[in-house]
Amino acid sequence: MFSGKIEDYILFEDKEIIVCRKPAGIAVQNARIGAMDLESSLKNYLAMQDGGGRRIPYLAVIHRLDQPVEGILVFGKTPEAAKSLSAQITAGKMEKIYLAVTYGKQAEAGKKEKVLEDYLKKDGKSNTSSVVNAHTPGAKKARLSYEVLGEAVDAISGKKKWLLRIHLDTGRHHQIRVQMAHAGMPLAGDRKYGAGTNVTIGAGSLALCAASLTFLHPVTGKVMKFVTKPEGAEFKGISIPQM
Q1: 3-class SS shares of the chain: helix, strand, coil, % to 5
Q2: In angstroms, rounded to a whole number, what is the distance separating the alpha carbons of residues 13 and 8?
Q3: Is the Cβ–Cβ distance between 22 and 65 less than 8 Å?
Q4: CB of 122 within 8 A of CB of 152?
Q5: Helical H runs in 28-153?
Q6: Engineered SS bond to 172: which of 4, 142, 143, 183, CB 3.0-4.6 Å?
Q7: 160-168 and 140-153 as β-strands: parallel, antiparallel, unpaired?
Q8: Where on the phi/psi map is residue 54: left (φ > 0), alpha (ψ -120 to 50), or beta?
Q9: How far are the Cα atoms of 185, 202, 239 from residue 151, in angstroms, in the given order?
Q10: How far apart are CA 9 and CA 23, in angstroms?
C-alpha cells in the first residue's frame, strides 16, 4: 500500500510522461469502490499541480502490472506520447525485465538463460489463464526467457530458493506466473497458480517485481532506463545484482 505521498513513488516526470514505482497491493486502475488506485492517485497529483483540481488531467495507462506485483510503469501525459509508447510496446521496443523468486528445484539446473514457449488461454470468469494446446480456440502464444541470478536459504523454512531474472517477449494475462508454474517453478507467494503444483511457495506475498523498464522518450527519442529493487519479503536474504 501507499506509505507517504504519491510524489515519493514518481521516478521521473516531464511534460510528456510520468514514470513511477507501483507498490505491491495497489491496483493500476479500476480498483474496487472506495479504494484508491495508481491511476487515480496520479491524476489527483497532476490536478493539484495544475491549480487545485479544476479540470481532469490527461493520463494514459500504457501497460499494467497485476495488483500483487510491484515495479516500474510509464504513463503518457499527452495523446501523442501515449501513442508513441503504445507503438513501442506493439513493436517490441519497450524492454521489461522482472525479478522473481521460486522454490522450484528446476531452477537449480544451471544458470544459463532458458526460454519458455507456451500457448495460453484466459478465462475471464475466473480471471485466470492456463497453458493449452496451440490449436485451442482463443489460445495465444506466450514467450519469455529466464536465468538464475542467485540463491539463498529461507530463514524461516530452511528451504533453498532461487532469484530469477525474467525477460518478457510477449505480454499475456498473468503470463509469468502461469508459465513458471507450468514449468515447475511457481513464484514464491503465488497462491493462485502455485498452490496445486506440490512445490513450496512460502508464506510471503507474491515475489514478482518489474525491476527494469527501458524505452525511447516519445519526443526526444532518448533511451530512458529505470530500475528498482524489489521490497517483497521473499526477496530478503538474496543478493540483488545491478540491473
Answers
A1: 20, 35, 50
A2: 12
A3: yes
A4: no
A5: 38-49, 79-90
A6: 142
A7: antiparallel
A8: alpha
A9: 14, 15, 8
A10: 8
CA dihedral 23, 24, 29, 30 (to 10 degrees): -140
Nearest to 46 by CA among 3, 76, 1, 82: 76
Amino acid residing at 15:
K
Residue whose grid cell is 491524476? 43
Q: Rounded to an integer, what distance in angstroms lies between the CA atom of residue 160 and that of residue 102?
A: 9
Let me know: does 140 contact 162? Beta carbons within 8 Å: no
| 208-216 and 70-76 beta bridge pairing | parallel
The H or E element containing residue 209 is strand 208-216
Per-residue pLDDT of the chain (243 residues), as tens digits, is 566 789 999 999 999 999 999 999 999 987 666 667 999 999 989 988 877 656 789 999 999 999 999 999 999 999 999 999 999 999 999 999 999 999 998 887 666 889 999 999 999 999 999 999 999 999 999 999 999 999 999 988 899 999 999 999 998 999 999 999 999 999 999 999 998 888 989 888 999 999 999 999 999 999 999 999 999 999 988 999 887
| The amino acid at 220 | T
